[in-house]
Amino acid sequence: MVYLDNNATTAVNQNIVDYITDLLTNKFANASALYPAGIESKRIIENSRLQIKSMLKADFKDDIVFTSCASESNNAVFSSVTRCFPEKKHIIVSAVEHLSVLNTVNYYQANGYDVSYIKVDSDGNIDIEQFKREIRADTLLVSIMLANNETGVIFPIKELVNVLRTYNSEAFFHTDAVQAIGKIPVDVSDLGVDFMSISGHKFHAPKGIGALFVKNGIDFCPFIMGGHQEHGLRAGTENIAYIGALGMASLAVPQMLREYKKREKMRDWMEKCISELGDVEIIGTAVKRLPNTSNISAKNISGDSLMFELANKGFMVATGSACNSSCSEPSHVLKAMGIPEEFLNSIRVSLSEKTTANDLKQFIECYSKLIKKRR
Ligand code: PLP
User: Fold this and answer.
1) Which end of the chain is more exposed for a tag (fewer CB within 10 A), N or C?
2) 323 is catalytic
3) Ligand 1 shell residues, CB under 6 Å
4) In the predicted model, is pLDDT for residue 353 greater than 90?
């Protein structure tokens, strides 16, 4: 089996599995308890918080809130800013956000908010001029992802933050950085964002743990209300084992970054081989992309059926985003990019930092055979 669906999720590293087992077995005391075992649980959580801050290059005074996933982190941002600043009614997002942002903003749109969707061009570039035009005095929040899950296209977040601050110094900037962690350097202080969402299962921690970066000094209304956990920013008894796992996964990020640099060359070589088949489009190659992602479209050949045939031969790839794969609608990302109808049916190949040249060689052979058979 060759697993090439790492933007959907990654395998949990064995050292993390071992650490989780140890924490579940030996460190189960409630972190709110005041006896030594409780204080030890609390120490594990705070240590992980420091590790995440260090991974993101956050300031010591900034906050990291542990959540159940990045979908919750994204929802929490919308919920917080709309409740803390109810007088402002305008939100800006890109047209290619993950559904955890798009469906959330749809909800606010249906409940009295004006929403501006920033367009992208056929290469995936965001329309900065449109962004400038859309900023208003009552703009409350901008939510634009750092890297797209389907194409790997990286957005110029620092530039967008600077534009926002020039036209409206009070609006908040949130970035969904889920796909960027471990693949490209992420420096939250340099980017200048107010909020950032991350998800553990995209960098070898388990599913069910995420985090939200909240810049120091920002008012935050908790999405989950209740007890005083997470400095009062997210109620619920803390998942010590998974919070610990997230911290441990962050320690491997510098090594992941080095490995992904090498994988980028392998990915480019794979794309070159596949392009030579003719009538194949690799989406987003003209702009900055994640080093691990290829969105490959063969003219008039169904991505769904290719995905199933590849799976039968032992290769796991995705069509569109994983969250979209249960519906056969063309991807909203490719549609927003204006990709022609005959190329809308793509597959997404996403490498891990451990993918080998031999994995890709086998994939190229299998993919090429399937395409030739169809023509
Ligand atoms: N944002 C992006 C860009 C994603 O790719 C994903 C998952 O695929 C999410 C958010 C949701 O993450 P989670 O599964 O942790 O809710």
Assistant:
1) N
2) yes
3) 69-71, 98, 100, 145, 149, 176, 178-179, 199, 210, 322-323
4) yes
